[in-house]
Write a structure and sequence with these properties.
Radius of gyration of chain B: 28 Å
Radius of gyration of chain A: 25 Å
CATH topology of the largest domain in chain A: Rossmann fold
Largest interface: A-B, 80 and 71 residues
Distance between the termini of chain B: 105 Å
Oligomer: heterodimer
Low-confidence stretches of chain A: 460-472
CATH class of the largest domain in chain B: Alpha Beta
Chain lengths: 472, 599
């Protein structure tokens, strides 16, 4: 079919234009819009009726002159051309090259909305990803095919943590490992940070970047993660790669969703966000996993900054309901100079239970993790008490707990940006720290484990802490 | 009967999953339709003169104005018959394994697949003979659907009369006629092995029966403190990460229902995969057969179309009613009803209805009530007894229980297992808060527990709850001034409550402790309370608490739960050793005390 060009539009309203008298338009179709000067903008049909259709313009409607604007319906949907050549490329938020290296030719064209995975086709993720970060490997284990977001706040080192996970993950350097990066409304400095560490450090061979920067059109942000996910799916499920996708910052994505919803005059739900935000986020986050009949995997690491550090805000809240756990960063730990400032009690990996222990990491891992959670949560209670009565008034056991808590944060959670700790070392470190507590307090580990890991070690003499240099 | 001819209308607007069509006046309200060239499945939800509003159960991208809308002549229905057990369906009843074979790993659109495999043969054994007079609910024949479950073929509602013919003991497929009935006007009707039923209509029964037996869950905190009755309704509300899904999975695994229907409504794909991978290898603790033989899964994950999510709840409950009518105890888990309510809200928003609270339509409580009221224990049309127990997860935004879905759900349920973020953060699982939760069934089930488990069941439950309530009060003081300044009797309460929390309330969902019989749960609780009574007496007579809690037997109580389920002797043994140790402490104290007096 030849694409007819229509001249003149009837209405311009926020990011939308209304075109009357068009025929044979399909819902979701892509549109080319040319303004008076002949500049091209892209849009998508979001409502059709017999009389008219409503188009959402990705790069905004500024300067459009209704009488002279030309609209062409392209008879295709929001699509992205993929081929092995996309590796190493940088695109903008709408999948257009941003690196000046020209169009990607060959390959296939995929609808960026993807299709839901049949739950029957999924394989339950069980392979542990060794990140070399103690607090994650031991207590919030990342699993291949998992979607595990970082809940952060403005000014916290979430970008560093994401880069550290990406560059230290055990598969790094192998040919079948790829990182896809989607920057959604991020600052130029952040984009530069990721570019420098992910590409220029040279540790990752395969990387594709999509950048929608803070001053790029807001509406494009709706599309950016979808381009990145389509690429990631292609790499994982057609080229058999193990893909780690970093989506940052999902808060900007949700803001764009709200802006669009309000512009359309939709009935808002909590805090003005659209009622379908859960379904919309799910259509992104659920595009992770492993398929039974493919070799690759798609692991998601979305980053979001919690508005006012509030975890009950709709954005982190809805995300937490969809993703398989969360890594929560703490401002208090950050202020105390702990990096990465992982709030271990709030953090959770839902897939961890089936992927640690004998045959996966080490036999004592599940009990040990449970004991650390129990003891460290007791530390918080005692800290609150110490705040009232003063530390000196506490009993001996309580003081031991406080000391344990301090060491745990300084020696275990705290580690260097380029420090890659073996899981064995992290686990041993946990045992060493627990050794400072009275044995009667260790109710979640078995007697034989205590004997093997604490008493046994005490007899042979404690090994030195792995990085006592970090102690402050 | 044959009134139906193919009706056809045409699309005039498309707005997300909501499509408006003209030329629809011969369509029925709630009729299923096929939309556009791709044959997308939809349902009519509003009629306005010649126009109809259709909610489409699949992604609508690509639809054009003027494309056809064709009627199917029936409302959204499911097929009921042998071949449902052990399978997984999407929200509108399409089998996902067939879709996998036809379409591959990703779900396409507009597919027509038989819900029940039309080629599978079942050995049908007749249980009645030609010449008998039958009515709805009369037993016609049986099929051994899985080794765990005998599928009873009953006369469907709406058919009655004299049986003129019935199948012999032979194999039949889903479409095979297995009986013919002549009604009072002499008309003859054929009954196939599988029949259809509209999901939004509840299946009839004779009358509701009072609830007398518990649904044993194998979870100590539920069976011991907040039991649910067979035929009851419970809600599990909790923010993310509090363990709603794990608790639901635990109930699906271990509850003593004969059949479990698990609806994954707007939740994660991997959670359904987990059930699919795990259930075939897990054994039912009562029969020793794989759990999958008694399980039906409905999966409409969060990324599947939202309209089908709305339907999934009805699809699930209709299948539950079908098996209830055979006289079975069915447990239905809906994870999560909040996602269902949100689907209702989303569709309502697209229809531009006036919202009530937080964008939810004003009829939300009505829908919730309709769903929960389909639970219950009934006398079936055939005169037997069956029940449906509904356990609905609720996902309140921000963990705030005052939001509309939780608040309205509380009006229609009688058992409330409140999940607590604080407990979850300390990895106390199941994170069921013992102060906020309640079960109105406890009173009705007392007789059963007192006679089946222990005559002091009610007494012990009351004691445990008052101990925990007292502890809550003491913990507030401890948070302010520390434990050391408290008198020994209060510190003893804190110690005993700790034993209850660590030794009884906490239960690992994995490993040998995953299922625990109510008998063993009671024995542990009984021992802790026994210790409390004894120690309280000792504290009163002046023995310091530091001596009482010194024997290692005291903390050993918290390890009892890790023992295999039916090890009653270990508990009795510990009780004896504990008594001996405490008696020794008391005796030594008396001796030293006497010496002290002399000097």
């Amino acid at each position: 079919m030849i694409n007819t060009e229509y001249v003149g539009i009837q209405e311009v309203n926020g990011p939308f234009i209304l075109v009357e008298g068009v025929r044979d338009v399909s819902y979701g179709e892509m549109v080319d819009i040319r303004d008076t000067r002949g500049n091209l903008r892209r849009g998508r049909v979001i409502l059709i009726s017999e009389k008219a259709c409503l188009i959402q313009v990705f790069s905004g409607t500024q300067d459009l002159v209704p009488a002279t604007t030309r609209v062409r319906f392209l008879d295709r949907f929001l699509e992205f051309g993929v081929s092995p050549q996309i590796l190493g490329r940088i695109f903008n938020g709408l999948g257009e090259p941003r690196d000046g290296c020209g169009t990607v030719y060959g390959g296939r064209t995929l609808n960026v909305n993807g299709q839901p995975i049949n739950p029957m086709a999924r394989q339950y993720p069980r392979d542990f990803i060794h990140t070399g970060i103690s607090s994650l490997d031991t207590l919030t284990t990342l699993i291949r095919g998992q979607k595990l977001p970082i809940f952060s706040g403005n000014g916290l080192p979430h970008n560093r943590l994401a880069v550290q996970i990406a560059t230290q993950s055990r598969l790094v350097g192998s040919d079948n490992f790829a990182v896809v990066f989607a920057g959604v409304g991020i600052k130029h400095d952040d984009a530069e940070f990721f570019q420098r560490h992910l590409i220029e450090s040279g540790t990752i061979r395969n990387i594709v970047m999509f950048l929608n920067l803070a001053d790029d059109p807001v509406i494009e942000r709706i599309a950016t993660p979808r381009f990145a996910l389509t690429t990631a799916e292609y790499l994982a499920f057609e080229l058999d790669m193990h893909v780690l996708i970093i989506l940052t910052d999902m808060t900007n994505y949700c803001e764009a969703l709200r802006e669009l919803g309000v512009a359309r005059g939709e009935v808002p739900s909590r805090k003005g966000y659209p009622a379908y935000m859960y379904s919309d986020l799910a259509s992104l986050y659920e595009r992770a996993g492993i398929l039974t009949d493919r070799k690759g995997s798609l692991t998601q690491l979305p980053i979001l900054t919690m508005p006012n550090d509030d975890i009950t805000h709709p954005i982190p809240d809805l995300t937490g309901f969809i993703t398989e756990g969360q890594i929560v960063l703490s401002r208090a730990l950050d202020a105390r100079g702990v990096y990465p400032p992982v709030e271990v009690l709030m953090s959770l990996s839902r897939l961890m239970k089936d992927s640690i222990g004998k045959g996966y990491t080490r036999e004592d891992h599940p009990d040990l993790a449970s004991q650390i959670f129990a003891s460290y949560s007791r530390v918080q209670e005692i800290k609150a008490l110490a705040g009232v009565v003063g530390e000196d008034e506490l009993g001996k056991t309580d003081q031991a707990y406080l000391a344990f808590g301090r060491d745990f944060e300084k020696l275990f959670v705290n580690q260097g940006f380029d420090e890659n700790r073996e899981i064995e070392l992290s686990l041993d470190l946990c045992w060493q720290l627990l050794g400072a507590l009275p044995e009667s307090e260790l109710t979640r580990v078995s007697q034989s484990e205590i004997k093997e890991h604490i008493k046994g070690k005490k007899e042979t003499g404690l090994q030195a802490g792995p990085d006592s240099s970090h102690t402050k | 009967m044959e009134k139906h001819m193919i009706n056809e209308g045409r699309i005039i607007t498309v707005n997300g999953p909501v499509v408006r069509a003209a030329g629809m006046k011969f369509f029925g309200m709630r009729e299923m339709v096929r939309v556009g060239e791709e044959n997308l499945i939809g349902e009519i939800i509003r009629m306005e003169g010649d126009e109809a509003v259709i909610q489409v159960y699949e992604e609508t991208e690509g639809l054009r104005i003027g494309e056809a809308v064709r009627g199917t002549g029936e409302p959204l229905s499911v097929s009921l018959g042998p071949g449902l057990l052990g399978h997984i369906f999407d929200g509108i009843g399409r089998p996902l394994n067939t879709l996998l074979l036809k379409e591959g790993s990703f779900l396409g659109r507009g597919l027509s697949v038989e819900q029940i495999d039309p080629d599978q043969e079942w050995l049908v054994t007749p249980k009645t003979a030609a010449g008998e007079v039958v009515a709805p609910g009369s037993l016609l024949a049986v099929v051994q659907e899985t080794p765990l479950l005998e599928h009873r073929i009953l006369v469907p509602p709406g058919f009655a009369g004299e049986l003129t013919w019935i199948i012999g003991g032979e194999k039949a497929k889903s479409g095979t006629v297995i009986a013919r009935i002549r009604d009072e006007y002499g008309r003859e009707e054929s009954l196939p092995l599988v029949h259809r039923w509209p999901v939004r209509t509840s299946r009839p029964s004779r009358q509701r029966l009072p609830l007398r037996t518990p649904l044993i869950s194998g979870q100590r905190v539920i069976d011991g403190l907040f039991p649910i009755a067979k035929g009851g309704v419970a809600a599990i509300p909790g923010g993310f990460g509090t363990g709603k899904t794990v608790t639901q999975h635990q109930l699906a695994r271990w509850s003593d229902a004969q059949l479990v229907i698990y609806i994954g409504c707007g939740e994660r794909g991997n959670e359904m995969t987990e059930v699919l991978e795990e259930f075939p290898s897990l054994k039912d603790p009562r029969s020793g057969r794989p759990l999958m033989e008694r399980t039906i899964l409905i999966a409409n994950t969060s990324n599947m179309p939202v309209a089908a999510r709305e339907a999934s709840i009805y699809t699930g409950i209709t299948i539950a009613e079908y098996y209830r009518d055979m006289g079975y105890d069915v447990a239905l888990m809906a994870d999560s009803t909040s996602r269902w309510a949100e689907a209702i809200r989303e569709i309502s928003g697209r229809l531009e209805e006036i919202p009530a609270e937080e964008g939810f339509p004003a009829y939300l409580p009505t829908r919730l009530a309709e769903f929960y009221e389909r639970a219950g224990r009934v006398e079936t049309l055939g005169g037997g007894q069956g029940s449906i127990t509904i356990i609905g997860a609720v996902s309140p935004p921000g963990g705030d229980f005052t939001e509309p879905v939780t608040r309205h759900t509380k009006r229609f349920i009688r058992c409330f297992w409140a999940l607590d973020k604080r407990l979850a953060n300390a990895r106390h699982f199941p994170a069921i808060n013992w102060l906020d939760s309640y079960s109105e069934y406890a009173g009705e089930l007392e007789d059963w527990f007192n006679s089946e488990i222990d005559p002091r069941w009610k007494e012990r439950r009351d004691q445990a709850r008052s101990l925990l309530a007292e502890d809550d009060h003491i913990q507030q003081i401890i948070r302010l001034v520390g434990e050391d300044v408290l008198p020994d009797d209060q510190r003893l309460v804190a110690l005993c409550a700790l034993l209850v929390k660590n030794g009884f309330l906490q239960q690992s969902a994995f490993g040998p402790e995953s299922y625990q019989s109510p008998k063993k749960g009671f024995a542990i609780l009984d021992l802790i309370l026994h210790f409390w009574e004894k120690a309280r007496g000792m504290v009163k007579s002046g023995v310091p608490l530091s001596l009482i809690k010194k024997p290692p037997e005291v903390m050993e109580i918290t390890r009892l739960r890790e023992l295999p389920s039916d090890d009653g002797e270990a508990i009795a043994g510990l009780r004896n050793r504990l008594d001996t140790a405490l008696d020794r402490v008391a005796a030594e104290r008396t001796a030293t005390g006497k010496r002290g007096n002399r000097s």
